[in-house]
């Protein structure tokens, strides 16, 4: 629908955004300033106790400093109530007393069509509810009772029953004035391929109405009573109302529960959701008979920044979790995370609650694991890494997976966590149980830090006069970094990223660096460490390093890494400059250099035959070369 210019601006101006949001939150009166239109509350989009959600009537925007949700009144209606854009516009226009512009005829037709289909599904829902009380539904009622669903639970979730008749529902709806074409289009009935009479799609099944975020009945799910039925669960087909990949069962009540502080729990099926909700976990939803889709993930994140995926403890549930990893990684980031609960083998949430009570489920939810844990488990569980090639293959798979994460900060934290897990797998803990580092030296644990007279930790500066020359300076800084990291291994995790960039030329130092990063202990690394300990240039002793508090040592390391990286950056610039020099040399200099080289060759080979112009005075040529170099004639002269 096309809206005239300025319509939305006037709409936003007429309705204070605090009025729209105020229906979903409780304003913090101490922090808010009503006179200025400045409002604060706990965020309705994620669980929190503090008022980090800010709403500004003058600007017409909201922003959460916790989960970073932001937008205007229309955005809020779409995110909090699940409205489509035009539905949100109409809702706000009605509140503002504004008349909506005339709709395009085709759009009006589509809107009217959806309205008619919703009337059909609501009528069918009522009919199914009536059938659950009939004699034909006795077996269905017994099944529900065995599953622990009393009459109150059945009423709460509007559970109904579809009898075995092929035409009873169609006839009942036609008597209410609905034509057969609309009944078929709403997914309640189907026509055979041979063009025969329409028949009810759901027969001899317990019926679960599916409602969207606005509490509209958009479809149905049916559980077969016949154990030999071709499909145990059957959903409505795709139609103008129902898109199973973009909706979640129980999304409306779950959103309200999450806004009150409950977690969003994603289970596998209808009965799991109902069992969780009845047990007090009211923020439960389920995908509609299919694997979780990208649209469903985004819908979850609009409700909660960290949904908990509670999958059955069978093989299928574990496979579903593994598939979800690849779907979620390219979408994850701040405010869009996942946690996972893997139930005991052979149990679903309903089984667990019945056998061990709601407390067991609550305990599992508290132990929910982050996505990075499942990624690591998927790539390592049941495998042996007894060769460099296998370790490299693991590293490559993990790097490829992490590279899919779009947010740089999230990607960095994933890399840090994977490195920690890799150290634990291949090298053990950074600290041994005897309180010593890998190389058997005390890492400073349990020592009282040295303090100055004013009670503050003492800070012993490191020597700042390295050996002469840039290479000497780099070697000094590199050696100091390696020595401190080897003696204070409990700090490695804090500087690991910078340590990885050292790239020592010396093979012994390279071996020591490898030991530090992987948690191993090689002979070459030990020899390199002893050499560093004995290096007089460093001026470092174990007592000096170990007597410092961790924060002081980290400050020293940070300074050393900064200086080393600056020195290497300067070296890189010099290398580029030298490359440019070669491109700037003129032909005359090139010819002269050739002459000098050939003359030097003659001096080294007196028996060489004379070649005319090479029979020059070697001392003169050497002096000329020195003049060229001292004058830096290859530099381009400055422009006038």
From TrEMBL:
Enumerate the cofactors the protein uses.
Answer: Zn(2+)
> Which PANTHER family does the entry link to?
DNA PRIMASE (PTHR30313)
* Entry's cofactor comment: Binds 1 zinc ion per monomer.
Gene name per UniProt: dnaG
GO cellular component: a single term: cytoplasm
Enumerate the CDD domains for this protein. Answer: TOPRIM_DnaG_primases
Whom does it interact with, and what assembly results? Monomer. Interacts with DnaB.
By what name is this protein known? DNA primase
Please report the organism this UniProt entry assigns to the protein: Paracoccus methylarcula
Protein EC = 2.7.7.101
Q: Which reaction does it catalyse?
A: ssDNA + n NTP = ssDNA/pppN(pN)n-1 hybrid + (n-1) diphosphate
Q: Where is this region: Disordered?
A: 429-471, 599-620
Domain-level remarks: Contains an N-terminal zinc-binding domain, a central core domain that contains the primase activity, and a C-terminal DnaB-binding domain.
Q: Which family does it belong to?
A: Belongs to the DnaG primase family.
The function of this protein is:
RNA polymerase that catalyzes the synthesis of short RNA molecules used as primers for DNA polymerase during DNA replication.
């Amino acid at each position: 629908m096309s809206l005239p210019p300025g319509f939305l601006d006037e709409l936003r101006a007429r309705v204070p955004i605090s009025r729209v949001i105020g229906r979903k939150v409780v304003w913090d009166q101490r922090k808010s300033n009503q006179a200025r239109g400045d409002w604060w509350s706990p965020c309705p989009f994620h669980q929190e106790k503090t008022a980090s959600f800010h709403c500004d009537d003058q600007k017409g925007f909201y922003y959460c400093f916790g989960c970073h949700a932001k937008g205007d009144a229309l955005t809020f209606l779409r995110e909090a109530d699940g409205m489509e854009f035009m539905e949100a516009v109409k809702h706000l226009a009605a509140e503002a007393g504004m008349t909506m512009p005339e709709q395009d005829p085709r759009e009006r037709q589509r809107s009217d069509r959806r309205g008619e289909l919703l009337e059909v599904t609501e009528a069918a829902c009522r009919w199914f509810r009536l059938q659950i009380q009939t004699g034909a539904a006795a077996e269905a009622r017994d099944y529900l009772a065995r599953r622990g669903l009393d009459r109150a639970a059945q009423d709460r979730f509007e559970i109904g029953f579809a009898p075995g008749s092929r035409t009873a529902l169609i006839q009942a709806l036609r008597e209410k004035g609905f034509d057969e074409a609309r009944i078929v289009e709403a997914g309640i009935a189907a026509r055979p391929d041979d063009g025969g009479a329409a028949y009810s799609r759901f027969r001899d099944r317990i019926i679960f109405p599916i409602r969207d975020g606005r509490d509209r009945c958009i479809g149905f799910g049916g559980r077969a009573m016949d154990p030999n039925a071709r499909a145990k669960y059957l959903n409505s087909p795709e139609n103008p109302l129902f898109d199973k990949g973009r909706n979640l069962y129980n999304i409306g009540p779950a959103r309200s529960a999450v806004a009150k502080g409950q977690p969003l729990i994603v289970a596998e099926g209808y009965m799991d959701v109902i069992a969780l909700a009845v047990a007090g976990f009211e923020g439960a939803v389920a995908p509609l008979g299919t694997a979780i889709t990208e649209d469903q993930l985004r819908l979850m994140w609009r409700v909660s920044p960290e949904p908990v995926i509670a999958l059955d403890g069978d093989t299928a549930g574990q496979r579903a979790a593994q598939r979800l990893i690849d779907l979620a990684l390219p979408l994850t980031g701040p405010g869009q995370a996942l946690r996972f609960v893997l139930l005991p083998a052979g149990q679903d949430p309903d089984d667990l609650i019945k056998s061990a009570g709601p407390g067991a489920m609550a305990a599992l939810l508290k132990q929910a694991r982050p996505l990075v844990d499942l990624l690591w488990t998927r790539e390592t569980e049941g495998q042996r890494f007894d060769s460099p090639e296998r370790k490299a293959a693991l590293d490559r798979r993990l790097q490829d997976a992490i590279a899919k994460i779009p947010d740089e900060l999230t990607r960095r934290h994933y890399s840090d966590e994977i490195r920690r897990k890799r150290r634990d797998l291949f090298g053990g803990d950074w600290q041994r149980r005897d309180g010593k580092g890998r190389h058997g030296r005390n890492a400073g644990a349990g020592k009282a830090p040295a303090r100055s007279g004013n009670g503050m930790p003492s800070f012993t500066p490191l020597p700042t006069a390295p050996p002469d020359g840039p290479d000497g300076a780099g070697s000094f800084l590199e050696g100091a970094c390696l020595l401190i990291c080897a003696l204070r291994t409990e700090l490695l995790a804090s500087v690991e990223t910078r340590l990885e960039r050292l790239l020592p030329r010396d093979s012994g130092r390279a071996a020591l660096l490898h030991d530090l990063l992987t948690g191993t202990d090689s002979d070459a690394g030990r020899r390199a460490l002893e050499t560093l300990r004995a290096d007089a240039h460093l001026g470092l002793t174990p007592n000096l390093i170990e007597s410092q508090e961790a924060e002081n040592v980290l400050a020293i390391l940070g300074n050393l890494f900064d200086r080393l990286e600056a020195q290497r950056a300067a070296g890189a610039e010099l290398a580029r400059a030298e490359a440019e020099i070669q491109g700037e040399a003129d032909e005359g200099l090139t010819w002269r250099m050739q002459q000098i080289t050939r003359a030097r060759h003659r001096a080294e080979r007196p028996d060489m035959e004379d070649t005319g112009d090479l029979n020059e005075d070697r001392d003169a040529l050497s002096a000329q070369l020195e003049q060229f170099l001292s004058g830096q004639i290859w530099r381009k002269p400055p422009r006038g």
